[in-house]
Amino acid sequence: VQLVESGGGLVQPGGSLRLSCAASGFAFSTYGMKWGRQAPGKGLEWVSSISSSGSTTSYATSVKGRFTISRDNAKDTLYLQMSSLKTEDTAVYYCATTQGTRGQGTQVTVSS
Questions:
Q1: What separation in angstroms does the CA of 41 have from each of 67, 71, 108?
Q2: pLDDT digits (tens, 9 = 90+) for 95-107
Q3: Three-class DSSP category at 28
Q4: Could you tell me where the DSSP H helices lie in 10-81?
Q5: CA 32 to CA 28: how far, in whole Å?
Q6: Are 43 and 105 in contact (CB under 8 A)?
């Protein structure tokens, strides 16, 4: 099982980023997936999840209305579109299966 996140970087407040998570080594289309983040000195926060088909999604209150999770099962890829970014969104972002396997993370820094 391998999950590789990409798309992080430095963005100004109010900006947007799209994170990607390339999956391999397992039947991606049969797994629910989720995105989490960990800010410096804080615990891991799960911000969004999506069902295996993509038909059901959920979001943490902190990101609802600003982030959109999606997946392309033909490409074995999970996405997180982030808009109206705030400084408090700064964190390492991880994708994970709902069983708990997660990638190495990608850094998102929101700063002017």
A1: 23, 30, 15
A2: 999 988 999 999 9
A3: helix
A4: none
A5: 8
A6: no
